[in-house]
Amino acid sequence: MRHLKDDELVPALSAQLGQELLAAVYARIDTALGPARMLTPLGNYLVARPAARAAAHRITARTDVPLDAAMVLGLTADALHVWSADPMLNRVGDHVGEISLDRVTDITVIPGRSWQQVTVRLAEGEKVEVQGRGATHALAAAFRERSAR
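^ that's the sequence the OP posted. Answer follows.
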């Protein structure tokens, strides 16, 4: 795992991938047990994270979009890449996979406080909802900009 702050994600992960990332953000799956994150770090790691990981696996099985309980979403010119991560400690893990942007019809962001609702709409009619931190609007804008070309 590598320690990367939000503003270090794009250059560091671009170098790892060997291609330019247009935007990257920390993200997480939210569940009904998500508020346990606020209790203590143990609430996060023993309650919220396992519930989010199970939800991520269900979403991946349904949509074929590789997800983890907490992750980094990174956008290149042709794909949305996913790395496992621990946003609480600003740590990025292994590259989990990618989804071709041919399958993505839109990425939208609903403003929030520190975490914003990010929705990735797929061509098959499915949608993937996660919470993103940091430059989430830049991720959506980069997708729209790329789609406009």
